[in-house]
Each structure stands twice: as C-alpha cells, then as structure tokens.
Amino acid sequence: MLKAAIIGATGYTGEELIRILLRHPDVEISHLVSRSSRGAPISQMFPWLEKRLDLECHSQMDVEEMSKNTDIVFLALPHRVSMEIAPNFLSNGKRVIDLSADYRLKDINEYQKWYGVSHKSTEFVKDSVYGLCELNKDAIKKAKLIANPGCYPTGAILACAPFLQTGLVDSDIIIDAKSGTSGAGRSPSVSLLYSEVSNNFKAYKVCNHQHTPEITQELAKYSESAVHISFVPHLVPMPRGILSTIYMNLKKNISVFEAVDILKKFYADQPFIRVKQADMFPEIKDVAHSNFCDIGIKVDGKRLIAIAAIDNLVKGAAGQAVQNFNIMFGLEETAGLM
Predict the structure, then answer these.
(1) Is 133 among the catalytic positions?
(2) Per the residue annotation, which of 133, 151, 160, 293 is the catalytic one?
(3) Rounded to an integer, what distance in angstroms lies between the CA atom of residue 166 and that of residue 122?
(4) Positive or negative: CA dihedral 231, 236, 240, 242
(5) What residues are paired with 308 via a beta bridge?
(6) How far apart are CA 45 and CA 42, in angstroms?
(7) How far apart are CA 143 and CA 72, in angstroms?
(8) For the whole prediction, is pTM greater than 0.85?
(9) CATH number of the domain at 152-312, out of 3.50.50.60, 3.40.50.1240, 1.10.10.60, 3.30.360.10?
(10) Which of 36, 189, 229, 321 has its CA 20 to 30 A from that of 70?
C-alpha cells in the first residue's frame, strides 16, 4: 500500500481527497494536517468518517516524521501557502501534488502580478509539471512536483486544445463559465453567505480572474499564434460544478459532426473525457461527484461553441490530483475514481 499525506485536510478539496482515497485500492492515508484542527480525530470534524477513518488530524506538521512513511504528499492549501511547504518535502525526496496555483505559472513575474506576492521557491517552478492528465501524461509519469490545474482552466483547456491544435479556430477565444460556491473554499466570506448567494447570479472578476494567465499559458502550447482569452466567471447558487461555454471563431466551414469527430479522436484513449453526440450538451448533474469532463459541440456558421461540464471539487481539484497520483505511480489511471 502506498501511503499518502494530506496537508489542508479540512478544506473542501481536502475532504474530497479523503473521500476518494478511502476507496482507493492501493492507498493508505498516513497523515492529516490542518491549521484549523485541534489535534482531534478527523471524524470529529467530519462525522461521516466515524468508523471509516479516525486518524488524528494534526495542527502542525513534522516534515521529518511524515517523510519517513509517506510516498505522496497532497497539498490542499490556499494559493501563496503551498510554496512555503512544498520545498520541505521535495528536499526530502518526496513527491508532491500541489492543488494551489503556486507552481502552475512558469513566468514568476506573472505569478507576482496575478497573486500579489513574490514567489518564495522559484527553484522548483521550472521542474513542476502541469498536471492536466489528458494532455501531459508522459511528463506526469516522471514528475516529482505536480501543479494540479485550476478548476476553471481544466474544462476550458480540455475543450479548446484539440481545435487550436488542428488550426481550425482563431486564437481569440471567449470563455463564459459558471461555478458553484465551493470553488471559493471553506473560509468564511460575506459574499458567500446564504443570504448573499441564494436567489442571485453574478459575474465577478470580469476579464481579471487569476486563472486567466494559466489558461493562456497552456493553450499557447497548441496554437501557432498568440492566444487571447476573454474569461468571464460567474457565481451560481449551487454547491458544486462548473459549466463553461466557450466561443471560438472558425477559419473554415466545418459541420458539427466533423467537430465532434475531432474531439472524439483527440480523446479516444482518455477514460474521463466524454464527448456528447452532435447538438447534445452536458449538464452539471451529469458530472456531479465524478471525475468526468463532458463536452458538447455546436457549430453556428463561422462560430464553434464548446460546452464543458466538470465537478470543480473532483475533476477540477481532488479527483484530478488522484488521477495524477495514479499516473505518477504506474497505477490504473481510474483507481479510486470510478
């Protein structure tokens, strides 16, 4: 059994990691850490874990002790925090999967611009692997540090990359995405109170969201020209899920059947990509609590519209992290995730 440590175990993604790893046939959870913990069994924080996992959740981490009997460290921490923790384990020869944005952007000046702080462990940024499993599998197999993709970027990149690579679409793209409230994390916020969110629907950080450079960076790998995205996220009064509607301009006329065929061929061997039939579109309920990304296509004259649905806590966070883990350790890619 491979042993896994989760740091940031009491957040939404930490809890989701626990849920997935408990059903993983090849994993034992060895350490749980959370600054908000009082040093009690994790089942006191999450009663659904009683008699399933009563491991103590520590408020402080002992890097040396944890490194002795841990094969993988999952960092389910806020942005700007992981870069202070990851080097401790990497220096001890441990493999790390970071669910924050701290190692996603290769340009550290861009990181400072979008996250408002200087990067504190730049020596590890160069060698980090962007863990979008369907696109970077070979690099993930050899990685020591995985930068787990953001939730919004996951659906957007998976929907766009095949069409950019074929050269069928312009590199000026509009991404209109809607997310459930868990995407903002578990920390209290006035804007996420029930009375603020219920019966409401709003755009936020319009063309100014911190996931913008991440999406641009990764899509640039599939485009011959500079990529520009107009990214508009929205907050929807539901707990989980992301639906992204993406508008791309076609360079030549193709049918919706041809577009669907491009997607199906591109993702033919990928177990967690489900391409809908022509003019059929995914819904949040189709992917909730799963690691699937469902994609539907519409062709409207010179415009190609791709609609992608994921669960932001699973394929957009914890599920993708476990998928990365499976690939890193040569396990069945779907282990613990079906």
Answers:
(1) no
(2) 151
(3) 34
(4) negative
(5) 244, 295
(6) 5
(7) 12
(8) yes
(9) 3.30.360.10
(10) 36
